[in-house]
Amino acid sequence: MNIFVDAKTTDDARRKELYKGAVFVHSPSPFALKLCELAKEMIEETFYPLDPLMLHETMAVEHCVEKLSVLKPRFIHDPKSKEYIQGMLREAGCDLEKTYFDVPRLRTAFPGDYLTSGIAYSFHPHRDTWYSAPLCQINWWMPVYPLDSQNCMAFHPYYWDHPLKNGSRDYNYQKWNQQSRYNASQHIKADTRVQPKPEEAVQMEPQVRLVCEVGGPFLFSAAHLHSTVPNTSPLIRYSIDFRTVHLDDALNRVGAPNIDSACTGTTMNDYLRGTDFKHLPAEVTKMYDDGELVQPS
Ligand SMILES: [Fe+2]
């Protein structure tokens, strides 16, 4: 697994490497910092006067879930979020005419077992391509507050080219949206929503944890196996992630290899053009919406 730090490459060259399993780490950039600052302001306003990193010490979990279920959509849908991602993509050398992104998510990982389901789902090892993401999807991830190796996310690079038996065959993104997505906040103690999970023991080692800076995102292919690191730090982790897709790669079906995904449906309709936030052309979405998007080869 190659890790590029502040690589001076074009976006075309970067995507080629990403589709081979590389990860790119960027130093903080002005718009990435603005996006983190926006999240921080909203978090601190939501939980005022409490310390937002220590809620598990002082707040009843049900109350915390209530607050998160207002905070998270508010961040996702704030027009400034889109504007700042646009800036981030420009700073990272992406062609905004051809780069499409989805709205950013704000994630939380709580220490211990305070809250690990529903609105603060602690992700088991998975590939986003098990969840109907196209093989050309690139994930961007960065923390809102300083990160450490005990509260970040992990890659499991062995599985880049080793298949893992999983439940993706039963997953369809369109069906998930209709049935499960909107009731995340009801799952406080346990998450009963059907998600594609490994169906055999996962070798969690070797694993790579990138401890990056606030506003310093790393980029990786949606086909990488990754998971939430169980938070053994004393602090809550807040992070932002979003995804991008390049029009040419979508049209030409260029992307990471598919070694074990069998889901149907597609997330293609979620991405918005970097210039004007228009959706991908309908014919592109249709190419991927035939239920045959990710058949294992
Ligand atoms: Fe993921």
Description:
- The chain has 297 residues and is of the alpha+beta class.
- The chain is 27% helix and 15% strand.
- Strands 1, 2, 3, 4, 5, 8, 10 and 11 form an eight-stranded mixed beta sheet that branches. Strands 7-6-9 form a three-stranded antiparallel beta sheet, with no helix packed on it.
- Helix 1 links the parallel strand 1 (3-5) and strand 2.
- The protein is globular, with a radius of gyration of 18 Å.
- The chain starts with a strand and ends in a 9-residue tail after the last helix.
- The model is unreliable at 293-297 (pLDDT under 50).
- Bound molecules: fe (ii) ion.
- Fe (ii) ion (FE2) binds next to loops.
Key terms:
alpha+beta; 297 residues; globular; 8-stranded mixed sheet
Q: Would you spell out the secondary-structure blueprint of this structure?
A:
Blueprint: E1 3-5, H1 11-18, E2 23-25, H2 30-47, H3 55-58, H4 61-77, H5 79-91, E3 99-101, E4 105-109, E5 138-143, E6 153-155, H6 173-179, E7 208-209, E8 218-221, E9 226-228, E10 237-246, H7 247-252, E11 272-273, H8 282-288
Parallel strand pairs: 1-2
Antiparallel strand pairs: 2-8, 3-10, 3-11, 4-10, 5-8, 5-10, 6-7, 6-9
Helix pairs in contact: 2-4, 2-5
The structure holds fe (ii) ion (FE2).
